[in-house]
Write a structure and sequence with these properties.
Radius of gyration of chain B: 16 Å
CATH topology of the largest domain in chain B: Immunoglobulin-like
Low-confidence stretches of chain B: none
Structural class of chain B: alpha+beta
Distance between the termini of chain A: 101 Å
Helix content of chain A: 25-40%
Number of strands of chain B: 6
Strand content of chain A: 35-45%
Largest interface: A-B, 18 and 15 residues
Strand order of the largest sheet of chain B: 1-2-6-5-4-3
Strand order of the largest sheet of chain A: 11-9-15-21-20
CATH class of the largest domain in chain B: Mainly Beta
CATH architecture of one domain in chain A: 2-Layer Sandwich
Number of helices of chain B: 2
CATH class of one domain in chain A: Alpha Beta
CATH superfamily of one domain in chain A: ACT domain
Order of helices and strands of chain B: HHEEEEEE
Oligomer: heterodimer
Mean pLDDT of chain A: 83
Strand content of chain B: over 45%
Helix content of chain B: 25-40%
Mean pLDDT of chain B: 84
Number of domains of chain B: 2
Largest sheet of chain B: 6 strands, antiparallel
Shape of chain A: elongated
Distance between the termini of chain B: 30 Å
CATH topology of one domain in chain A: Alpha-Beta Plaits
Largest sheet of chain A: 5 strands, antiparallel
Number of helices of chain A: 9
Radius of gyration of chain A: 43 Å
Chain lengths: 399, 99
């Protein structure tokens, strides 16, 4: 039965309404002539609806006349009718095909090139970034090229060749995005080659605690104060009578006390941007590099404002779409802070500064916090006393 | 006279046929051209070997067969399928009568 129904659906069938006094006669003649009927339903006193195949429908005309009935088509069902209705709406079909084609074509391009470091974070090293992007442009890889022809191995190799800072590069295509992951090499410090004569000078000012000269002539003694750049161990070795001079690769460790100082102003007030509650929306259409305004007048009407993007206006990184911005009016409000909080904030800033200032491998001996009052305000001073190796090799010849 | 003869012969023939089918336990609806009514629950009824329908309404269906008329009474009766051999009636059946 299901098979028959399926077959009928494939071949197409019609639901007809038979009107007349001799519907039974109509049905009988149909069955006798091998026209299959199904779903016969009494609709009213003289009416009945029934289904029959398209082939059968073509043969019922004499039967209709014989049984003096009237036949009306209620509905055409089945695959042939669906197909013809689809053909009638051919532009709809064309639209679907075009849409699929469009998506496929758009997906064949690289729309975005992104750099990541090995941990998967966005890579940010202006110098290397520039080299990488320059290399890519040289290779002809930029936004909008077809992704199938790209040789990823070639990209990685070229990047490695052009940028010596890179230790490892991988290039991958993810959808329409070219993802380049790089790992920067940890650069070794500038070391004077061992066979080149050199001096050892002071890296910073300091008070010398220990002199360990392994090669060369020590020029300073314990307890001396040295300035930055002062000669500590000379590469010149004179013979006892002073007539011969031999140049060596001076080497040694000079441990000294060093001091670092950071001054930070203590602000007793902090400025807070507070929204006044006034805002308006600015929408615009983004289409690659073009931006079509959907508003009139200036984009910004307030002197102090905050912009919040409520809609990025990009689809999977492709800048197409409606960009929605909400612009809030803000007021600067100065809030008074209590002293503890102010000091705390200043300390945090000063500590951050110190971390930048103090070189690695430094032993911190003591730290002094001091608050000084000047006419321009209160200042926090942090003095750090350290012990570090201030030896620094420098080529001879006054460089 | 001749007509009479023919009918007796036909009768004889029929009786013989009946005896054979009884003896071999052959299906009667095929051998003797009898109708067969199958009722599933009270909502489906199939009649095999029918000759035509004489009346169809949503409350009443009368079906002609070689062995007489079958009248089905019920509610919401629908002829689900009709072909030369069988008819399938669906709906809520109240009674099946033979005339």
């Amino acid at each position: 039965m299901l098979l028959i129904k399926l077959w009928n659906f494939i071949r197409g069938y019609v639901i007809i309404l038979v009107n007349g006094y001799f519907i039974e006669r109509f049905i009988n003649i149909c069955t006798h002539r091998n026209i299959l009927l199904w779903d016969i339903r009494r609709m009213g006193k003289n009416e009945a609806s029934m289904c029959l195949s398209v082939r059968g429908f073509k043969r019922i005309r004499p039967i209709v006349r014989k049984s003096s009935c009237k036949v009306k088509i209620l509905k055409k069902n089945g695959l042939p009718f669906y197909i013809s209705s689809i053909i009638k709406r051919k532009w709809f079909l064309v639209g679907i095909i075009l849409c699929v084609l469009f998506i496929n074509i758009m997906a064949a391009f690289v729309w975005d090139i992104k750099l990541y470091d090995a941990e998967g974070k966005v890579f940010s090293d202006a110098q290397n970034e520039k080299i990488i992007y320059d290399t890519l442009t040289q290779m002809g890889i930029k936004r909008g090229i077809i992704k199938y022809g790209i040789d990823l191995k070639d990209i990685a190799q070229n990047l490695m060749l052009n940028d010596s800072d890179l230790a490892w590069v991988s290039a991958r295509i993810m959808g329409t995005k070219l993802k380049i992951e790089v790992q920067l090499r940890d650069l070794p410090p500038d070391i004077v080659p061992e066979d080149v004569p050199c001096d050892v000078v002071a890296k910073t000012d300091g008070f010398i605690e220990l002199v360990l000269a392994k090669n060369g002539t020590a020029m300073v003694k314990q307890g001396e104060t040295v300035k930055k750049g002062q000669l500590l161990i000379s590469g010149e070795i004179r013979s006892k009578d002073g007539s011969e001079i031999k140049y060596v690769h001076a080497l040694g460790n000079i441990y000294a006390r060093t001091w670092y100082e950071v001054n930070e102003k203590i602000n007793s007030t902090k400025v807070i941007m507070q929204r006044t509650g006034n805002y308006y929306d600015r929408n615009s259409i983004r289409l690659f590099k073009w931006q079509i305004k959907l508003f009139t007048g200036n984009e910004i009407l307030y002197s102090l404002y905050e912009v919040e993007k409520t809609n990025e206006g990009s689809i999977f990184g492709v800048p197409i779409g409606i960009e929605k911005k909400r612009i809030y009016e803000v007021n600067e409000i100065e809030l008074a802070m209590d002293v503890d909080e102010a000091v705390k904030i200043a300390t945090e800033r000063a500590e951050a500064e110190l971390i930048k200032l103090i070189p690695e491998n430094t032993e911190i001996i003591s730290k002094h916090h001091e608050i000084r009052q000047k006419h321009s305000g209160d200042y926090l001073t942090i003095m750090v006393e350290c012990k570090e190796d201030i030896a620094y090799q420098q080529k001879m010849g006054g460089e | 006279m001749e007509k009479d003869k023919l009918s007796t012969r036909k009768n004889k023939n029929g009786r013989l046929k009946k005896r054979i089918t009884d003896f071999f336990e052959l299906p009667r609806e095929i051998m003797l051209n009898m109708f067969k009514v199958t009722i599933v629950g009270r909502e489906q009824l199939i009649i095999e070997n029918f000759t035509g329908i004489s009346e169809y309404d949503s409350n009443k269906v009368r079906v002609n067969t070689q062995g007489g008329i079958i009248e089905i009474k019920g509610r919401n009766l629908v002829i689900n399928e009709i072909s030369t051999e069988d008819i399938l009636i669906k709906g809520i059946i109240y009674s099946v009568e033979f005339f």
